[in-house]
Write a structure and sequence with these properties.
It is built from four helices and nine strands; from the N terminus they run E-E-E-H-E-E-H-E-E-E-H-E-H. The strands form three sheets. Strands 3, 4, 5, 6 and 9 form a five-stranded parallel beta sheet that branches. Strands 1-2 form a two-stranded antiparallel ribbon.
């Protein structure tokens, strides 16, 4: 028990204790934007003394969300609301991290309390460009997703790398991928890089990340720095 409240160093980051708040889905965003709900939800954990506060999974593309109410970080416009949250938590002494995600076949779903299974109709904000490693549906009452091509894999890889760059501008200290690294369609290396990226709409700050070559042979996403 005493060790729980002792400081912990992770590379250049120093946590005041070893209490970490894990990502918790809130299903309370609008078009990917963090809202007052997220501020009220996570702020008290920082005020209460947690050493590390992680945001819920933020989608790296619009189609990578679980539901239309999931947060995202695929556009520069998402940064200010995330920065407001991280600035407050950091001012309380907490280190803030963000979980980056692409939900694959578990996409365009209704929120858990709205259904017993199924997807969101297009007329209600759902989308039909669900993609996954195979065309196998999540369940019998779900449509079959599009099987990712090599270009599609490269697109997802590029999205993770670009949003890791954007996370730095939102002042999160850690970017934690919720999916495993993917093999590059061209060079075969397993890493979050983008040398073979297909065209992707991203924010201007993230565009620089897409110019990098396949330079990370180990398959780990570098932590975003503040």
């Amino acid at each position: 028990m005493p060790a729980l409240f002792s400081p912990l160093s992770l590379r250049s980051r120093a946590l005041r204790n070893r209490v970490g708040v894990s990502p918790m889905c809130q299903y309370s965003s609008d078009h990917g934007f963090a809202a007052d709900w997220h501020f009220v939800h996570l702020g008290p954990f920082a005020t209460g003394g947690a050493g590390l506060v992680l945001t819920e999974a933020a989608a790296v593309t619009p189609a990578g969300r679980i539901s239309p109410q999931d947060p995202g970080i695929w556009d520069d416009a998402h940064i200010p609301t995330l920065r407001r949250l991280t600035d407050y938590c950091r001012a309380q002494g907490a280190v803030v991290g963000i979980q980056l995600a692409h939900t694959g076949r578990k996409a365009s779903m209704l929120r858990p309390w709205e259904h017993s299974g199924g997807t969101v109709p297009l007329s209600e904000g759902g989308w039909d460009n669900v993609m996954a490693p195979s065309a196998r549906p999540l369940a019998s009452n779900h449509p079959s997703p599009d099987e990712l091509s090599l270009d599609g894999i490269a697109h997802v890889v590029a999205s993770f790398r670009a949003t890791a760059s954007m996370a730095a501008y939102s002042r999160t200290a850690f970017a934690s991928p919720s999916k495993s690294p993917t093999a590059c369609a061209r060079c075969g290396r397993r890493s979050f890089h983008s040398s073979c990226a297909s065209p992707l709409r991203i924010g201007s700050r993230a565009a620089g990340a897409l110019k990098s070559r396949c330079s990370s042979p180990h398959g780990y996403m570098p932590a975003a720095s503040t």
